[in-house]
Amino acid sequence: MDFQQLAKQVVEDIGGKDNIQSLTHCVTRLRFKLKDRSLADKEAVSRIKGVINVVEQGGQFQVVIGNEVTKAYDAVVELTGIQGQAIDVVEKDDLKVKGKFLDIVIDLVTSIFTPIMPALIGGGMIRALLMILLQVGVLQETSGAYIVINEIYVAIFSFLPVYLAFCAANRFKCNEMLAVALALTMVSPTIVATVKDGTAANFLGLPLTVPAGGYGGGVFPIIISVWFLSVVERFCNKHIHPMARNFLTPMIELVITVPIMFLVFGPLVSVLESAVGDGYLALQHASPLLTGILLGGLWQVLVVFGLHWGIVPIGQINLAQYGRNTIGAIIGPSKWAQGGSALGVALRSKDPDIKQNAFSAGLTCIFAISEPAVYGVNLKYKTPFYIALVMSALAGGICGLGNAAQVGGGPVGIFSFPLFLGEGFFVFCLCYDFCPAGILYRDLLLWL
């Protein structure tokens, strides 16, 4: 694949490099923010060789490339020179709320969560590896090797607000280091300990409350706090004289934001997070079967429309508060179901190019990347996609009924099976085998 040519065509068809406001990428997509959407030709971009699909969601023009998206990203950066542009100059239009509410929320969540996914995936895979080594007796929980390596996972997920703060500061266009300082204060062991033992139970007479486990696994408290930090920063930059701005602004920002964070945002958002997590758990307790069927069957539909990021924080909340994420177990088989459909297309097709693309796309689903199979194969032929949804709903219902759950963060692929050890693990494995096997059995019979 000539990625220089692909980059040239993509940039040309989206209105040229001057029409690009920003560019990021995730596991499979180039995510453009365009200055003028009307200059982009969606149909032309979708016809470019190497482009799987084009999705518009959350204010982004997303070009689905597949597993080699990094090469395409590097080629676009080399062509446009967009990497490294200043982000501290805030345009007025950037601060205005644009588009529908759902688009705004999706854009916010994806822009903050996408950059930290490598760390979450890396930590999750380390956790999976350690659980395998513990099971086979290679390591013991008391061994130095286990303790050191396990701390990688613990550090990533215990200090999650620090990662989120940096990305949120980038999104809200405020000072990243002050946002990190804010997050480090939030997860400070000293504050958690002193609040618990009553030493610092109040601030200027106002009660301080910290969750039992602290804010280490929190998602929304730090995001809202960084947003407030950005508001204070813009106010200070506007009203403080430039000669005093460099030393007064950081102090004022932190002195104002930290107490507000602990007294207002932290407790308020923690209550809401608990309500969301408890609501999902209540729904699952009321009807695990129905919950699994709905979430499992609709998950890949949400992925297609880019809506799945709205559910990711719920899983993170449940994992942080309860140590179990049933969402991960319910949606996991849907990836292999899409992979099974793509492999079924590879078996049935007589076109060498289709067979090759469908086969490689199907295999990537084993490693928790389903978008090449969904966009490149199944949606194109529709029926394979619908069959995979049905199988995903059945598997999700069974996983929900069997109370299968993820006990560590990370992608839901073949190497992360140890993250599902515990109650419902056998059911989870059965569903993972059931989804692709059922689809392949059907397609193999028709192919023969």
Give the tags.
mainly alpha, Gyrase A, domain 2, 3 domains, two-stranded antiparallel ribbon, about 65% helix
List the helices and strands and how they pair.
Layout: H1 3-13, E1 20-25, E2 29-34, H2 42-46, E3 53-57, E4 60-64, H3 69-80, H4 101-113, H5 117-135, H6 144-158, H7 160-172, H8 176-186, H9 189-197, E5 202-203, E6 206-207, H10 220-239, H11 242-286, H12 288-304, H13 312-322, H14 326-348, H15 352-364, H16 371-381, H17 383-401, H18 425-447
Antiparallel strand pairs: 1-2, 2-4, 3-4, 5-6
Helix pairs in contact: 1-3, 4-7, 5-6, 7-8, 7-10, 8-10, 8-11, 10-11, 11-12, 11-13, 12-14, 12-17, 14-15, 14-16, 14-17, 14-18, 15-16, 16-17, 17-18
Concise summary:
With 448 residues, this protein is mainly alpha-helical. It has helices spanning 3-13, 42-46, 69-80, 101-113, 117-135, 144-158, 160-172, 176-186, 189-197, 220-239, 242-286, 288-304, 312-322, 326-348, 352-364, 371-381, 383-401, 425-447; strands at 20-25, 29-34, 53-57, 60-64, 202-203, 206-207. It contains 18 helices and six strands.
